[in-house]
Model the fold of this input.
Amino acid sequence: MLFLASLLLVLSGLQVMPDAESLIVGVGVTGKTESCINEGEVVNTDNISKSRCFTCTCKNGYVECAKERCLGAEGCYMLLDHSNDGCCYKCKGCLHEGVYRESGSQWRDPRRSCRILSCKAGVVTETEEVCYTPCANPRPPRDGQCCGMCKGCQINGQVVTSERNVTSTEDPCIKCHCQDGHMTCTKKACPVLNCPDSAVEYNKGECCPKCKGSRRLIEPPKGSCLLKLGLHQSGKTFQHDDCTVCACNNGTLHCHRASCPPLDCPEEMQVRVPGICCPYCPRKPTLPKGELYTSCRVGGRTYEDGETWKLDQCKSCACSGGLIRCAMPECPQVGTCPPRFKLQREPGQCCPKCVEEDGVCTVFGDPHYKTFDGKFFSFQGSCKYQLVADCSKEKSFNIRVTNDARNTKTSSWTKTVSLKVGGIKVNLGERQRVKINGVKVTIPYRMSSGQVTVRREDETLHVHTHLGVKVVWDGMSFLEVSVPAKYKGKLCGLCGNFNSMSRDDLMTRRGRVVLDPDKFGASWRVGGKRACMRNNEPPTRAIQCSQHLPQRRYRDRLCKPLRTEVFAPCHKRLNYAMYFKSCLLDMCECPGRKCYCESFTAYAHECARLGVNLPSWREDTGCHALY
Done:
């Protein structure tokens, strides 16, 4: 009856909370989609309740709002009322010996250095720290510490540093850390979780399970304690599991949990017996008297006792008394990366981390430009221009484009691309012709020095340089340049300066920010008048499309696929409005070619970067590269 009554009590107050970090992508809480054009900039919006709890930015043409990150809320099923700002719920803490402890805190008993206490969602877990000593003659522990120290900071082939702890793959609860050239390895029990069993998540290779999600529950009767779905009266002691005994004391649960000894056999070999707290390793076969295990055999290879080897970029192993013992770095928990960052594992590194994304500048059609910082503008100049260059003192690369008027009055399209990196010049021409230092080459191509490689992928040319600068070219007018984050704030040209602010992207060669794309574009002209296709440079008037109704319907029909099911899988991730507008403009003075294809190409490439693959868009639209 007590269990049923407590269950009803819990469920009556159960309220599903949003995730600790919820996103609203292109859709406000009222269901209204909001478009935007100032990419990356903060947007003020009034149609979200408690708007102070959200930060809204312009991303991929939509207003995207991220809720304030509530520390400690994820995994908590004992959320209390909102904090003072009204945005975040707070996880219930613990009152221990008259001192209030925040949920998630951990401390050591000042009277017993091996006793560790922690607070999680109203539950205090008390356990003993167990020592693991991988050396023969450890030094005594430091003041206030429990375990002795081994000289040197290496275990099973892994180097331990003050910034990087190492854990055993056989027993991930063993943690080794290094200080002043001495290593200490310890193990402690996991805190008691206060969430339903259905919400407990076990991840292979991690020491402790964790609660997934969060809930807000009503407070139990004063003085009593709530653990999972059970209500416990103050002063009562009970057995929680095979390792844990708990007692309720004035609303705080105090649990004593046994710590299990370190294990040196793989998890799949460990033996667990119902009713017994700790698992154990099976006994090794007994050798004849006087004989010792002196080697380990792995995958057909024999390793001698004490020999170490690496399995991969994370894990290394050692042969110890005939047992294979492995270790790996303890990777820090990484949540959601901030805007313009992505979770990535660097070559040769074990732990992934948030790294800044490459900057991408796109040019397409009757040239439309999307800068590294996301600003859209159109500029129909028909000369040679500096698209992007390293404008720091290193001046490591330079990319120029030549625009062709194609016998039109006010339009132009990118005709050729010139990339200079070091003493190498790469020319990309129409129909995907490629020259390296003036010599025509066949694709695929790779310089013996590795400085430049060229390959064909998805009907486009991909040029990679040793600097990390990449160019994608379709041989007609679509061009994409990506640069590593190390060039942030160091660039100049039509693609902007890559400083995460789109408002100053139209900065002329002389450092003046202008509003007129024609003045901005003309300031980056290079090569003199001989590189121009017509005299009125830049265009003296904006393109005026025919207002004749059949002409408008014709342009709309050709550009319509952007709004249909052909590109629909990407519509929620990327606003097609600017691409559709660009397509309509391209068809005003299209010189007998499929000009609309360039807007389709640009949209499809942007979608691919966002993880949306559109495998049949070329077949559905008839937009195949011409080479």
In short: The chain is about 10% helix and 30% strand. The longest helix spans residues 596-609.
